[in-house]
Design goal:
The chain is of the alpha/beta class. Helix content is about 35%, strand content about 25%. It has helices at about 60-65, 70-75, 120-135, 155-165, 185-195, 200-205, 205-210, 230-235, 240-245, 265-280, and strands spanning about 5-15, 15-25, 30-40, 50-55, 80-85, 140-150, 170-175, 220-225, 250-255. A hairpin with a 2-residue loop joins strand 1 and strand 2. Helix 2 runs parallel beside helix 10. The longest helix has 19 residues, at about 265-280. It catalyses: S-formylglutathione + H2O = formate + glutathione + H(+). Its EC number is 3.1.2.12. It comes from Salix suchowensis. It is found in: Cytoplasm.
């Protein structure tokens, strides 16, 4: 099985290219796809900083590339966008496709500890395997200069991965993140099945809980949240995260956007602000 990525599609956009790749992931035990948006290069030797996007429940690597419009500003800022898939696929684990908020399409960017879901190791895939794969196969990428952002479940993933790896990422932002999953139905369902009953294990993948353990976060955390989002009050809980940031003296900018919902229409509206936020950090 080929672990080296092979290109499966390419489309030109804003002078650069959206390219989709497939490879076998030893971490997950299955074939995976991911997208890279390459901005136009000023010279053959130029190296680009990278910005990882983590998508939400039921999404694939395609949603962000097709719907966000992020490529326009990524092209002018000279930043590569990396969009991985959201879970292992094709493993045929019993019950993996029974619900949209757990299993296939719902990896929650953690390392499962329960035997049945042992291949659900999206944390290691995003933090370890994918950056190494990119570094070894794409010499135009400066993978040591990286930032991360995401939406909903992917916003949860971006926040937790950033807080657990402050040495690996220059900045973080999120749209409508699942900010306190140990206290919401989506998180409780996923964590019970993937991690077992121990609440201490759950806290390792909860951004609000992690905030009490971090030190020296200097870059402002940017969060956009629509106040018309139907999931705001029972699933997302951004105010809990904001309170934890204030207690830890971590700079956070939580912007409640009037009338916006949970969709990519919302993401596309404010995506430019997020790309600029990361561009400033990546070019320090």
């Amino acid at each position: 099985m080929e672990s080296k990525p092979s290109e499966i599609s390419s489309s030109k956009m804003f002078g650069g290219y959206n390219k989709r790749y497939k490879h076998f992931s030893p971490t997950l035990g299955c074939s995976m796809t991911f997208y890279i948006y390459f901005p136009p290069s000023p010279s053959p030797s130029h190296k680009f900083p990278v910005l990882y996007w983590l998508s939400g429940l039921s999404c694939t690597d395609e949603n962000f590339i097709a719907k966000s419009g992020a490529q326009r500003v990524a092209s002018t800022e000279g930043i590569v966008l990396i969009a991985p898939d959201t879970s292992p696929r094709g493993l045929n684990v019993e019950g993996e496709a029974d619900s949209w908020d757990f299993g296939v399409g719902a990896g929650f960017y953690l390392n499962a500890t329960q035997e049945k879901w042992k291949n659900w190791r999206m944390y290691d895939y995003v933090v370890k395997e994918l950056p190494k794969l990119l570094s070894e196969n794409f010499p135009q990428l400066e993978t040591s200069k990286a930032s991360i952002f995401g939406h909903s479940m992917g916003g949860h993933g971006a926040l937790t991965i950033y807080l657990k790896n402050l040495d690996k990422y220059k900045s973080v932002s999120a749209f409508s993140p699942v900010a306190n999953p140990i206290n919401c139905p989506w998180g409780q369902k996923a964590f019970t099945n993937y991690l077992g009953p121990s609440k201490a294990d759950w806290e390792e993948y909860d951004a609000t809980s992690l905030m009490s353990k971090v030190r020296d976060v200097s870059a402002t955390i940017l969060i956009d949240q629509g106040d018309g989002d139907k999931f705001l009050h029972d699933q997302l809980l951004p105010n809990k995260f904001e309170e934890a940031c204030r207690s830890a003296n971590v700079p956070v900018l939580l912007r409640l956007q009037p009338g916006y919902d949970h969709s990519y229409f919302f993401i596309a509206t404010f995506i430019d602000d997020h790309i600029h936020h990361h561009a400033r950090a990546l070019k320090l």
